[in-house]
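Whiteboard transcription, Tuesday session. T.W. wrote the structure tokens on the left side:
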């Protein structure tokens, strides 16, 4: 069936597994007018980007890191009006870096093309010599300085430079169509107002580039919860609306998705549209109904559920997937789905998973008065008040609390005489059902098993009810309570920021990395121990940890590099040297595995790749450098309760691509 996360999945390299949905067809059509692909996690954004990258004639994917800014260089109030000069200058900056990326793609396709317009040539030999994020940061600094100095001449000059570049690129002989794919924005998304301002300007810039350059376009794949923040902030978001494609799926398409994967390795392939499903499932129509109604019409959920059912059939020795296998997979899927939901919305609502666990053992359906009683219990819960304070008090009204749970897909709303309505998977439904006295709030059935919900209607809860005290609450490292865990992470984040560079802070940095491994990677890495060595009479500690993960990124590393252990070297300075890479390469061998990490205080530079390439060529190993921004991202995600490994996966993918 393939991996459930597209970034870990090898199956999408096969074009036969793709279902031609309307968003799919519009993405491969240069003239479709759709540039923004918006959907919840698991609706196929990364899979669609992968197909475009591999099958369109001129396509390049980028994962921008600019949406977790480390410095507040702007007075954001000056950028509130999208029609005013400062915001338009910000849009112009993003347009120019996107144009530069299209120019680089064009140059790769025309390496010997002699006649290049003057401004295009200057752009290629100047700003385009840096990578995408570096160009963006430098350009943003220039705009920030001009805005602070109220230098209208500099702002106008930047806008004119971008317009002149567009005019030259319009008439450039392209020799084909070029597509820039922007994905995984949420991996570097810190949810700050500055990041939101950047993203809003970036989306407008992407639309303008796509409509102004006849041979180029920019496709942005964006999580729905992030796009909704742009929509709420941007008074000009209507300009984007007609260019949005929501990644929704119907049940026929989901069945076809499963069938294409089931028959992929078969020589004689049953027909699509039912015969393939019937060949693999006993009582096919019943199994199909059970799985699809349980999964809320989301492709990742369906693939995970079917994979669990296949595993269950194998364990029982069944040659076909029986109904008991489908039933046996339900609890495992439900547990995973609940964790994934809390992770998906952790950036918008930190530690929302904690609130969801408080439903444990209650009913599957609630009246509005039942919800009011639940909210009272939550507001009396010390952990909830401490860890969810940034949002829980703003949603204590029953209507707002239910709307929040509806928007994340946890509950649906039932009205008398009508079926339960759950929200769609694409951009938010603008007219959800009203939450009034005759509404019944229904928890989606995919969470019933994980929360052990009773088949009952909750009208009231006694004040003595202890919410969510047993069941699925995950054990944290060192037996920490959720409150203590967050406090440890906050302390670690503060320490990382204040540690002096170089020798004076070396020991502190080593201790901080050890704590980071224990707090942020405890689900995947175990037995974190110091590895001491002496250099010039100085004791230096690095870290080694055992890989215990059975799925995800670390499982792949263990299999690919025979890595039972992973070494983390600590370098308390900003720039790495050749000796640093040479040193860690000595530790990588057949005994512990051939994958290592260097944690340091700077940013990853292109020059590091030649050292990593040498290690890969000579020793068959890979060294992954992680800078201070990466380390802070791990802490930020742990604080928010995010479980995904996408950030380190992207870091690894980018490194491997550059050295291969």
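and on the right, the sequence the group agreed on:
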């Amino acid at each position: 069936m393939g991996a459930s996360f597209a970034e870990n999945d090898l199956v999408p390299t096969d074009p036969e597994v793709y279902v031609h949905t309307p968003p799919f067809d519009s993405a491969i059509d240069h003239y479709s007018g759709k540039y923004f692909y918006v959907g919840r996690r698991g609706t196929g954004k990364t899979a669609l980007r992968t197909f475009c990258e591999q099958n369109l004639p001129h396509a390049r994917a980028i994962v921008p890191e600019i949406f977790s800014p480390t410095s507040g260089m702007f007075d954001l109030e000056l950028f509130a009006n999208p029609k005013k000069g400062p915001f338009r200058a910000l849009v112009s900056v993003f347009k120019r870096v996107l144009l530069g990326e299209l120019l680089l793609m064009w140059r790769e396709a025309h390496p010997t093309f002699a006649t290049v317009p003057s401004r295009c040539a200057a752009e290629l030999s100047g700003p385009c010599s840096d990578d995408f994020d570096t160009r963006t940061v430098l350009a943003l600094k220039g705009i920030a300085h001009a805005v602070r100095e109220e230098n209208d001449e500099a702002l106008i000059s930047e806008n004119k430079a971008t317009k002149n570049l567009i005019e030259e690129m319009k008439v450039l002989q392209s020799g084909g169509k070029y597509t820039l794919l922007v994905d995984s924005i949420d991996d570097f998304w810190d949810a700050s107002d500055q990041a939101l301002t950047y993203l809003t300007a970036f989306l407008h810039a992407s639309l303008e580039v796509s409509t102004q350059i006849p041979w180029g376009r920019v496709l942005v794949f964006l999580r729905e919860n992030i796009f909704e923040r742009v929509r709420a902030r941007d008074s000009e978001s209507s300009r984007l609306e007609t260019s949005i494609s929501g990644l929704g799926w119907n049940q026929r398409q989901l069945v076809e998705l499963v069938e294409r994967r089931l028959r992929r390795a078969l020589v004689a392939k049953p027909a699509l549209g039912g015969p393939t499903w019937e060949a693999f499932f006993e009582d096919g129509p019943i199994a199909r109904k059970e799985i699809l109604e349980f999964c809320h019409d989301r492709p990742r959920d369906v693939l995970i559920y079917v994979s669990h059912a296949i595993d269950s059939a194998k364990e029982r020795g069944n040659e076909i997937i029986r109904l008991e296998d489908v039933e046996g997979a339900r609890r495992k899927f439900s547990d995973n789905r609940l964790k994934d939901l809390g992770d998906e919305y952790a950036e918008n609502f930190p530690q929302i998973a904690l609130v969801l666990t408080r439903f444990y053992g209650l009913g599957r359906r609630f009246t509005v008065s039942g919800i009011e009683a639940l909210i009272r219990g939550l507001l009396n819960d010390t952990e909830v008040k401490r860890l969810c304070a940034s949002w829980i008090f703003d949603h204590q009204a029953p209507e707002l609390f239910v709307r929040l749970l509806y928007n994340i897909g946890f509950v649906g709303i039932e009205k008398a005489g009508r079926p339960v309505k759950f929200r769609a998977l694409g951009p938010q439904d603008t007219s959800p059902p009203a939450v009034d006295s005759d509404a019944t709030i229904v928890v989606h059935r995919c969470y019933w098993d994980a929360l052990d919900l009773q088949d009952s209607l909750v009208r009231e809860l006694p004040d003595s009810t202890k919410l969510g005290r047993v069941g699925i609450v995950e054990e944290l490292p060192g037996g920490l309570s959720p409150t203590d865990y967050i406090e440890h992470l906050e302390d670690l984040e503060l320490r990382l920021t204040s540690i002096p560079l170089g020798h004076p802070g070396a020991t502190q940095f080593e201790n901080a990395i050890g704590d980071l491994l224990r707090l942020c990677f405890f689900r995947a890495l175990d037995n974190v121990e110091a590895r001491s060595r002496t250099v010039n009479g100085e004791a230096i500690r690095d870290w080694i940890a055992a890989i215990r993960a059975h799925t995800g990124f670390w499982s792949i590393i263990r299999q690919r590099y025979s890595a039972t252990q992973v070494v983390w070297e600590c370098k308390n300075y900003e720039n790495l040297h050749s000796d640093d890479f040479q040193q860690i390469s000595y530790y990588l061998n057949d005994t512990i595995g051939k994958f290592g990490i260097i944690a340091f205080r700077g940013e990853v530079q292109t020059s590091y790749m030649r050292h990593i390439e040498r290690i890969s060529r000579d020793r068959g190993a890979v060294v992954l450098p992680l800078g201070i921004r990466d380390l802070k991202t791990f802490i930020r995600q742990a604080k928010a309760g995010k479980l995904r490994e996408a950030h380190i996966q992207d870091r690894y993918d980018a490194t491997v691509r550059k050295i291969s």
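Someone added at the bottom: The mean pLDDT is 86.
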